[in-house]
Amino acid sequence: MKTFRFAIKQIIPLLFSYFFVGIAFGILIHKAGYSAQWAFLAGVFIYAGSMQIVMVSLLTSEVSLYMVAIMTFFINARHIFYGIGFVDRFRKMGWRYPYMVLTMTDETYSVRCSIKYPEDVDEQNIDFYIALICHLLWIFSCTIGALLGQIMPFDMTGIEFSATAFFVTVCINQWRLFGSHIPAIAGFVSAIVFYILFGADTFLLPALSVSLVVMMMMKDRIDIQMGGMKCDN
Amino acid sequence: MTIDFGSSVMTLIVVALVTGVTRAIPYLLFGGKKELPAAINYLGNVLPASIMIILVVYCLRNIDLTTFPFGLAELLSVAIVIAAQVVKKNTFLSIFLGTACYMILIHTVFLK
After folding, report:
1. Is residue A89 within 8 Å of A97, Cβ to Cβ?
2. Which residue has the higher pLDDT, A154 or B42?
3. Contacts of A78 in chain B (CB under 8 A)
4. Partner residue opposite B81 with nearest CB, options A45, A168, A219
5. For residue A80, how many other CB atoms are within 10 A of its CB?
6. What pLDDT does residue B3 have?
């Protein structure tokens, strides 16, 4: 029970984000003429906010499946980078391993990057609870959005900013925690440079790849700086 | 609106499959029983700092810096999140203040 409560506490910062982005998707797919079952299935099997929203426009246009596959790959390709840090942690989790792999999202990734486990709880159980609760919350929001999103009493435009705000707080925490600021600076600079060069739709992958290359090239320096931090603790 | 049931099902399946495969790629490459390459361990440790800041830029990618209000609502709200987090170190408070600021701004000052 203690583990469960700890997991819930980690999820609180992204409740709004999941809830309202899910509802936004539900409303969209409902408006496109699909029933709540579709929203439910998308929530269960896709579980990727921006991709699901893009899918609604793919459903209503005459795009070939081949193009659908390519677009999905590029929109979700950032997830490849998320997996790199969790291979060792997840593969020890037995039957839960595939589930952990398939339920990694922007939000769960950020939570896992900033989490500090207490000593007397089972880390694997926490990881699993976080994955499961987030997934269920997402499925619920998508379905609710499709069922009664039309009659939401308030204009909630802008609530989606809570996701951005959450990612910003994770950045700040990491800036404090990391001995080396080279990774953060490399990420920021390459994001801005490729944003200017390639525009809003295509800067993500080059930015991620280049910062990865920068970190490989500066490994020695970063290692020394990170090592310095560990000695302080 | 009429929906082609079959092609909708196929679209959903393709999106779900490709999303799953994308998420699984690093595990398929390195997830066996073998020892993890040292380079992957290192990257796993340092990549988060890069990725999170790129993700913030990604969230803000659709603001238009060339026409009014020049992304002021977003940038001001991000500034408030940063200030709150630096001073108070309370994640929930920072998110709450930033989001409230953003919603008030786009519903009052910077109507779209």
Report:
1. no
2. B42
3. 51, 55, 58
4. A168
5. 18
6. 65
* pTM for this predicted structure: 0.85
DSSP code for B63? -
The pLDDT mean for chain B works out to 87
Asked casually if ipTM beats, i.e. exceeds, 0.95, the reply is: no
Least confident of A133-142, B18-27, B51-60: B51-60
Cβ neighbours of B78 in A, within 8 Å: 164-165, 168
Write out chain B residues lying below 8 Å of A219, CB-based. 42
How many interface pairs between A and B have CB atoms less than 8 angstroms apart?
242
DSSP calls for B39-71: HHHHHHHHHHHHHHHHHHHHHTTT--SSSTTTT
Chain B: residue nearest A33 by CA?
B1
Report the residue from A159, A161, A187 with minimal CB separation from B53: A187
Q: How many angstroms away from the CA of A79 is the closest CA of chain B?
A: 5
- How far is it, in rounded angstroms, from Cα A114 to Cα B15? 29
Q: Give chain B's count of helices (H) and strands (E).
A: 4, 0
